[in-house]
Write a structure and sequence with these properties.
By secondary structure, the chain is an alpha+beta fold. The chain contains four helices and six strands, in the order ββββββαααα. The chain has two domains: about 100 residues, Roll (SH3 type barrels); about 30 residues, no CATH class. About 5% of the residues have low confidence.
Protein backbone atom coordinates (compact mmCIF):
# COMPACT_ATOMS: atom_id res chain seq x y z
CA UNK A 1 0.00 0.00 0.00
CA UNK A 2 3.03 2.25 0.06
CA UNK A 3 2.37 5.30 -2.14
CA UNK A 4 -1.43 5.05 -1.86
CA UNK A 5 -3.35 8.28 -1.24
CA UNK A 6 -5.33 8.36 2.01
CA UNK A 7 -8.81 9.92 1.83
CA UNK A 8 -11.54 10.35 4.46
CA UNK A 9 -15.22 9.61 3.87
CA UNK A 10 -15.70 13.40 3.52
CA UNK A 11 -13.14 13.28 0.64
CA UNK A 12 -10.49 15.14 2.64
CA UNK A 13 -6.98 14.35 1.40
CA UNK A 14 -5.17 13.02 4.47
CA UNK A 15 -1.79 12.30 2.88
CA UNK A 16 0.07 9.32 1.51
CA UNK A 17 1.00 5.93 2.92
CA UNK A 18 4.80 5.85 3.42
CA UNK A 19 5.06 2.59 5.40
CA UNK A 20 3.12 -0.25 6.98
CA UNK A 21 4.13 -1.19 10.54
CA UNK A 22 2.23 -4.03 12.19
CA UNK A 23 -1.48 -3.29 11.84
CA UNK A 24 -0.89 0.43 11.20
CA UNK A 25 -0.36 2.53 8.11
CA UNK A 26 2.13 5.38 8.47
CA UNK A 27 0.52 8.37 6.73
CA UNK A 28 2.61 11.38 5.72
CA UNK A 29 0.85 14.72 5.35
CA UNK A 30 2.07 18.14 4.27
CA UNK A 31 4.34 19.58 1.62
CA UNK A 32 6.72 21.88 3.43
CA UNK A 33 6.13 20.88 7.06
CA UNK A 34 5.56 17.14 6.85
CA UNK A 35 4.08 15.13 9.69
CA UNK A 36 3.54 11.41 9.99
CA UNK A 37 0.78 9.66 11.91
CA UNK A 38 -0.22 6.04 12.43
CA UNK A 39 -3.61 4.95 11.10
CA UNK A 40 -4.94 1.51 12.19
CA UNK A 41 -5.83 -0.64 9.19
CA UNK A 42 -9.07 -1.65 10.93
CA UNK A 43 -10.40 1.84 10.03
CA UNK A 44 -9.39 1.62 6.36
CA UNK A 45 -10.53 0.14 3.07
CA UNK A 46 -7.96 -0.12 0.26
CA UNK A 47 -8.85 0.39 -3.41
CA UNK A 48 -5.93 -1.25 -5.24
CA UNK A 49 -7.19 -0.21 -8.67
CA UNK A 50 -7.37 3.46 -7.71
CA UNK A 51 -4.33 3.26 -5.37
CA UNK A 52 -6.42 4.90 -2.64
CA UNK A 53 -7.02 4.05 1.00
CA UNK A 54 -10.33 5.30 2.40
CA UNK A 55 -10.82 5.74 6.12
CA UNK A 56 -13.89 6.28 8.27
CA UNK A 57 -11.93 8.56 10.61
CA UNK A 58 -11.98 12.34 10.40
CA UNK A 59 -9.04 14.47 9.32
CA UNK A 60 -8.93 16.12 12.76
CA UNK A 61 -8.79 12.79 14.59
CA UNK A 62 -5.86 11.56 12.51
CA UNK A 63 -4.00 14.88 12.73
CA UNK A 64 -4.39 14.79 16.53
CA UNK A 65 -2.89 11.32 16.82
CA UNK A 66 0.64 10.76 18.14
CA UNK A 67 3.32 11.59 15.55
CA UNK A 68 5.75 8.91 14.37
CA UNK A 69 8.82 8.67 12.13
CA UNK A 70 8.47 7.64 8.48
CA UNK A 71 9.93 4.22 9.23
CA UNK A 72 7.69 3.77 12.25
CA UNK A 73 10.62 2.64 14.41
CA UNK A 74 9.36 4.83 17.26
CA UNK A 75 5.77 3.56 16.93
CA UNK A 76 4.17 2.65 20.26
CA UNK A 77 1.33 0.36 19.15
CA UNK A 78 -0.28 0.39 22.62
CA UNK A 79 -0.40 4.20 22.62
CA UNK A 80 -1.90 4.22 19.11
CA UNK A 81 -4.52 1.62 20.12
CA UNK A 82 -5.47 3.65 23.21
CA UNK A 83 -5.70 6.86 21.16
CA UNK A 84 -8.09 5.30 18.66
CA UNK A 85 -10.06 3.42 21.35
CA UNK A 86 -8.95 -0.02 20.21
CA UNK A 87 -7.96 -3.02 22.28
CA UNK A 88 -7.93 -3.28 26.04
CA UNK A 89 -8.66 0.14 27.47
CA UNK A 90 -9.07 -1.08 31.04
CA UNK A 91 -6.92 0.98 33.37
CA UNK A 92 -6.90 1.41 37.13
CA UNK A 93 -9.82 3.56 38.20
CA UNK A 94 -11.91 3.00 35.06
CA UNK A 95 -14.82 0.68 34.44
CA UNK A 96 -13.91 -2.50 32.59
CA UNK A 97 -13.74 -1.77 28.87
CA UNK A 98 -14.61 1.93 29.29
CA UNK A 99 -12.39 4.36 27.34
CA UNK A 100 -10.11 6.54 29.44
CA UNK A 101 -10.82 10.26 29.85
CA UNK A 102 -8.56 11.34 26.97
CA UNK A 103 -9.83 8.78 24.46
CA UNK A 104 -11.62 10.11 21.36
CA UNK A 105 -13.84 7.02 21.62
CA UNK A 106 -15.37 8.41 24.82
CA UNK A 107 -19.00 9.50 24.31
CA UNK A 108 -20.75 12.56 25.68
CA UNK A 109 -23.06 10.24 27.61
CA UNK A 110 -20.10 8.61 29.38
CA UNK A 111 -18.69 12.03 30.27
CA UNK A 112 -22.08 13.16 31.57
CA UNK A 113 -22.48 10.11 33.80
CA UNK A 114 -19.02 10.68 35.26
CA UNK A 115 -19.91 14.35 35.89
CA UNK A 116 -23.11 13.31 37.69
CA UNK A 117 -25.57 14.31 34.95
CA UNK A 118 -28.68 12.15 34.74
CA UNK A 119 -28.80 10.20 31.45
CA UNK A 120 -31.53 11.38 29.06
CA UNK A 121 -33.34 8.02 29.15
CA UNK A 122 -33.54 8.09 32.95
CA UNK A 123 -34.75 11.71 32.93
CA UNK A 124 -37.51 10.92 30.41
CA UNK A 125 -38.64 7.92 32.49
CA UNK A 126 -38.76 10.04 35.65
CA UNK A 127 -40.81 12.74 33.88
CA UNK A 128 -43.23 10.14 32.46
CA UNK A 129 -43.82 8.78 35.96
CA UNK A 130 -44.70 12.28 37.17
CA UNK A 131 -47.17 12.78 34.31
CA UNK A 132 -49.11 9.60 35.02
CA UNK A 133 -50.13 10.76 38.51
CA UNK A 134 -53.65 11.71 37.36
CA UNK A 135 -53.56 15.22 38.84
CA UNK A 136 -54.72 18.46 37.27
CA UNK A 137 -51.22 19.45 36.31
CA UNK A 138 -48.47 17.47 34.63
CA UNK A 139 -44.76 18.04 35.01
CA UNK A 140 -43.32 21.50 35.62
CA UNK A 141 -45.16 24.03 33.47
CA UNK A 142 -47.33 21.46 31.69
CA UNK A 143 -51.00 21.87 32.58
CA UNK A 144 -53.32 19.06 31.65
CA UNK A 145 -56.50 20.34 30.03
CA UNK A 146 -59.46 19.18 32.11
CA UNK A 147 -62.33 17.39 30.39
CA UNK A 148 -65.09 19.59 28.98
CA UNK A 149 -67.45 20.21 31.88
CA UNK A 150 -70.24 21.54 29.64
CA UNK A 151 -70.80 18.28 27.83
CA UNK A 152 -70.45 19.84 24.39
CA UNK A 153 -67.71 17.46 23.37
CA UNK A 154 -65.52 20.20 21.94
CA UNK A 155 -65.54 22.24 18.73
CA UNK A 156 -66.83 20.74 15.51
Amino acid sequence: MQGYAVVSTEDDNLGEVVAVVGDNLIVERGTLFKSRHALPQSFTQADDEGRVVRTTLSKELIEGSPKVSAEGDDLDEDEIARYYGLGDTEEPGTEEGAPDEDSPARTAGQEGIQAGVEPAEAERARIRQGLSGGGTYGGAGRPIIPPDSHGTGGPE
